[in-house]
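Exercise: predict the structure of this protein bound to nicotinamide-adenine-dinucleotide.
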Amino acid sequence: MKELGHFINGQQVAGQSGRFADVMNPALGEVQAKVALASKAELDAAVAAAAQAQPAWGATNPQRRARVMMEFVRLLHRDMDKLAEALSSEHGKTLPDAKGDVQRGLEVIEFCIGAPHLLKGEFTDSAGPGIDMYSMRQPLGVVAGITPFNFPAMIPLWKMGPALACGNAFILKPSERDPSVPLMLAELMTEAGLPDGVLQVVNGDKESVDAILDNPTIQAIGFVGSTPIAEYIYGRGCSNGKRVQCFGGAKNHMIVMPDADMDQAADALVGAGYGAAGERCMAISVAVPVGDETADRLIEKLVPRIEKLKVGPYTAGADVDYGPLVTAQAKERVLGLIDTGVEQGADLVVDGRNFALQGYESGYFIGPSLFDKVTPDMEIYKQEIFGPVLSTVRAQTYEEAIGYAMDHEYGNGTAIFTRDGDTARDFAARINVGMVGINVPIPVPLAYHTFGGWKKSGFGDLNQHGPDAFRFYTRTKTVTSRWPSGLKEGGEFHFKQMD
Ligand code: NAD
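Solution:
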């Protein structure tokens, strides 16, 4: 059985704890590897080595650091197929989707090539007589990222790129469900010229996460995953005096106005609702048509599209729309939630529960499901399902529709489909959600903007990637400097005015 360890000081090393987790092939329902789960001692040793390596990296000029990023981008392109294959086999998503996962991470690395510009400080010449004032952005030291299973390339890249470009050393604790790609990324960073020890990948579970939270050398933590864990990490990390940003779960609503192009809206909903088997934090999981007539037209357009979806393993060809869920537990949970939806009185218009694929009977596949007449008191509305299940909540007015999205505890993404500029503008201005699409179902901001949800979808002050990442991974120091050219004023006991 293949054994995956950690990446420490520039090479892969075996785990020492004796504890392992199974890495599944979700399409086959078979164990394909074992991944080591680090002990606190292993995590602490990785951090200590990173702390040794960081000062030289932090002192390397930003242009040289950017050149490592430049070469890394070239290597990501070179190994795109290999990375996508490894990613699909552990996660289950289709190959084109796996390439998208790498690509959206790679674009953040491209942004990080601009580090010399992004790290420029501020300077005030002659702030007072003989006085100059300047601010610089300095790395924090050793920082850590804890990432989820659903984007095993993109999210580690969102974290490691800016952290390293800013001159930090970075400890990555990826998801134990799909650990191969993060290890491959670390190998490629080393090949690109990153000094040993500056990027450490420590595989593990709660023990290594707790060790990160309590390690006094680690200055900042970026987390992405489910909301209960985000809240836990934010609380414990902050109380240990660290800078922490945590991005959590989602329940993304898409409002469909009566004037929307209904074919466009239905196409968008099918892609955004069922792509990657719904295992995306920016998936649309709730459609909110305004008016019963709109709802009826939308359902009529959705059903044939959903029934045509091709569900299968990533090896079955380019026309597969989505693959299996990540684990047997995830499949059971989603099936349980669909049952609950039926019990609580929602209309199950398309039922994906009895989906079976010849030759893949043990895989974690679920067919697409569509609910109509879902109400806010139902579990399928309250919870993040994270599966191929789209719920329709019928609203009678625009105000009622926007109210559903506003009142939900999550606030990651949302969208509105309309041809009316006034409505779209009002929606963008008023909605209390971090990322908004206007006739765009999955409004994931590009690398040079920032990504982050509101309410229970995001904890902390700054977003991921874009300029915010360069703020998160640096500390500002402001220097006031005076060269008195012969001025001798004696001691001063009040704040001096700069005049
Ligand atoms: P998860 O919360 O189970 O795991 C995330 C990370 O936390 C993993 O590295 C895992 O090992 C660790 N972890 C799990 N349980 C822990 C515990 N009890 N104590 C300490 N650490 C623990 O999330 P997941 O299932 O891997 O990912 C799916 C979730 O991530 C969904 O809720 C999804 O919406 C969310 N997500 C959010 C964003 C975003 O930007 N908001 C992006 C992607 C995914």
